Amino acid sequence: MSAACHYFHFGLIVTGKTERGYLPNLFKALAAARICTFEIIGFVSQRDPITSTTRQLVMVGTGKIIPDRDTEQIGLPARGYISRSACHFVIVIDDLEHDRRELAQEVYNRYRKALDTILRDHQKHRASVHFLVNMLEAYFFADAKALNAVLNLALEDYDGDVEDIRHPKGDLKQLCAYHEIEHGSQIMERLDLEHVLSNPATCAWLRTLFAWCVRVLERYPYFETLGLSGKFCLDNGRLSPITSVQLDML
Fold first, then answer.
1. Closest to 67 measured CA to CA, from 15, 114, 103, 118
2. pLDDT for res 61
């Protein structure tokens, strides 16, 4: 494990305009410990698996090939942020909509390659790639209390895994005049992530994101005093088989 940190900086590179507006609020349960901050450092378009027609850049001396826009918009910003100090970390976060689920591994590989090709060997473990499944709004259905307070609805918590809801944003728009920026930000302020992740059988992708963040925070010298151990069902909850491999890198 690397040297201890007393304050952690997480830089978020996001793909959705909703996420760009208020995604740092997703991590308020971690920020409440007052040893870390989450900030948006980049906004990029969604990436698809690399094909032979994708414009690419050969990294001199490595033989690795990545699309040039991945270098400019993902790799270089990540390296710049991580290079500020040993306590700076980067998270690339994308939506993984239903029609892209079968491509999850390939999409993950593209983001991961953008990071690994540009970052130095001692920096790679300080960057990770995660997905909101099928999109951020899915998790609103796991905390009906927050949804009802903002949208004046009378829903119960979703009976099942919200990461299996095919069109969560569309479902909200059918229920009411949902506005993803205005209403989304208000719901995020109320969203109880510990409640969202309270069922160990659901939300594997989101739990993996939080597991990675908590694993980073374990570098805090007094981690046991933060009250994070045992939260979010990290010890016994489902994790993503794709993005969880990054936990071992830490």
1. 114
2. 46
